Amino acid sequence: MAVFNTEGSEGSQRCLLSPPSPSFPKVGSKTRSSAAPSLPFFAAAPQPCGEAHWEVLTGVRPRSFLLRLQFRPRRTRTAAVGDPARTITCSLSLSQVPAPELQGYSRCGASRGPSLPPPGPGGGAAGGAVQKAVPPRTPHLTLSVPWWQEPGGRRRVGQPGRSPSPGCTHGSRIYPILGTYWDNCNRCTCQEQGQWECDQEPCLVDEDMINAINRGNYGWRAGNHSAFWGMTLDEGIRYRLGTIRPSSSVTNMNEIHTVLGPGEVLPMAFEASEKWPNLIHGPLDQGNCAGSWAFSTAAVASDRVSIHSLGHMAPVLSPQNLLSCNTHNQQGCRGGRLDGAWWFLRRRGVVSDHCYPFMGSERDEAGPAPRCMMHSRAMGRGKRQATARCPSSHVHANDIYQVTPAYRLGSSEKEIMKELMENGPVQALMEVHEDFFLYQGGIYSHTPVSLGRPERYRRHGTHSVKITGWGQETLPDGRTLKYWTAANSWGPAWGERGHFRIVRGANECDIESFVLGVWGRVGMEDMAHR
C-alpha cells in the first residue's frame, strides 16, 4: 500500500493506492512474465486527472514499459463526525501501453479531475454534496523512481520545498534523479550529484571480447548475436545450456570401438546432409530454456530414425515431449541428463514436433516445463501407442517414435568419424566457455582473451550438440585446421546458420570425450505404412 497526500482549500485529502499484480515483460522474450514489482517502482506524482499516465520501471532488462493508470474515485464515510481528515479511496486499473505510443503517455492528460464526494463534517448538507476535487499543490511521495517530464518543467519527487535537481544526461535525453537506462546488461542509475552509477555485471555480449578475438589470429570470427543482447554472462550459462554431466556409472559405461578395415581410408571431408539428403534436419532453437539435453537428443534421434527407415519415417521429434514428460530425475528447462532422455525414448517414445510443439521459446527464463500432455501404452514387441490426441489441434498424426538403447563411442577421432559416416549424426557433450556465445563463423577454439580479467568474466557450463560432419581448412597464415561440423540449438541466426565448426582431433572443449550413437526402432510395418 502506498499513500500520497494532496493539500487544498478543502483541507487534507488522502488517496490510498492498492495496485493489482500485473505481469511485466522481461529480457529476451515477447511474453515473458515475472512477479509484479512493488509500487515504489512506479514513477509517479499526484495529478488531478481522471486518467493519469505514469512510467513504470520494471527493474528488468533491457527497457522499461509504460502502464496506463486510471483513478476512479468513490465515496467513503469518515471515521467520526467532525474528523478533519477526508478520505478518498481510488480504484486503480493498469494496462500496458504499446511501445509506439510511449511519447503520448509522458505527461498527464488535459482533462482535469473527476468530481469527488468527500463527506462534510457534521453530516450536514455538505455530507451528500458532490464537491470538485482540489488540485494538489504539495505532493508527498516516497518512491524509488521519480516521474518523468511534463510540459512546463520537471518536478522532483521528495519533500515539499526542496529545489529541483538537475538530473543526468544520457545522449540527448535528461533523466531525473534515480532515473535509469540500460547499457547492455547493466542498469545505470542517476545519482543526486548528477552522476551515473552503473552495475558492473559481465554481459553475454562483450564488445571488448569481440574486438580482442577479431584482432587475434584465432581462426574464427566473433560477433553480436542480437538474441543475447541485454543478458548477463551468468544468465547465458544458466538459460542457454542445460545438460547435466552424467554420473560416473554412465561415463564409465563400456565403449563400442569401431575398427577400420584393411586399407579403409576415411575421406578428408564429410557432411551427413550430402549423403542423406532430406533426412538430416536443421538446427533447433531452445530459447531461454536450459534444455539442450532434450534438444540434442531429439535432433540426433530424428536424423537416425529417418536414416534407418530409409526415409519412410522422417519426423522432427518433439523436444517438448521430453521436457514435459521425461520427469524422472530430470528438471525440464532447468537441466537434464542424456542417459535419462535416451531411456525415455527407448521405453516410452515421443511424438513429432508438429504433434507436440515446443512451448518454451517465449518463456522468460529456465523453469519447470508445462505438464505432460502426451502419454502412451504398450502394444506388444516393445512398441508403444499414443493414448491422447496431439496437443496441437491442427495435427492428427500422433505416432510414437522409439529407439534402441544408446551406446557410447570411443574417444578416438577416427572411430567417431566412421560411426558418423556409416550410421548418421552423433550426440556429443561439450564445455561452453564465455567466448563461444560470440561465435559467428570459422573454426572455433577457446581463446585466452579473458585470462587477465576477474574470474566472474570466465565462466563455463555443459552443453550437448549434434555432430554432423567433418573437414579441414587452410588458414591465410598457412596453418591447416581440422574441424567437426555441429548443429547447435540456438536457432538458425546464430553462428553459421545455426551450425558451428570446432577444432577436431584435440578434444577441444571436451567435445570428443563423451559421444553417443543410437539406432531408430524401425519395423517392417513402419516401412510399409508410413
From TrEMBL:
Q: Where in the cell is it found?
A: Secreted
InterPro entries for the chain: Papain-like_cys_pep_sf (IPR038765), Pept_his_AS (IPR025660), Peptidase_C1A (IPR013128), Peptidase_C1A_C (IPR000668)
GO CC entries: extracellular region
GO BP terms: proteolysis
What residues does the Peptidase C1A papain C-terminal domain cover?
Answer: 266-519
Q: Name one Pfam family in it.
A: Peptidase_C1
Could you cite one Gene Ontology molecular function of this protein? cysteine-type peptidase activity
The UniProt regions of compositional bias labelled Polar residues, in chain numbering, are 1-12
Q: Where is this region: Disordered?
A: 1-31, 110-168
Query: Could you tell me which PROSITE patterns the record lists for this protein?
Result: THIOL_PROTEASE_HIS
Q: Which residues lie in Low complexity bias regions?
A: 158-167
The alphabetical list of record keywords is: Disulfide bond, Glycoprotein, Secreted
Classification via SUPFAM superfamilies: Cysteine proteinases
Family, according to the entry, reads as follows:
Belongs to the peptidase C1 family.
| Name of this protein | Tubulointerstitial nephritis antigen-like isoform X2
Q: Which organism is it from?
A: Acinonyx jubatus (Cheetah)
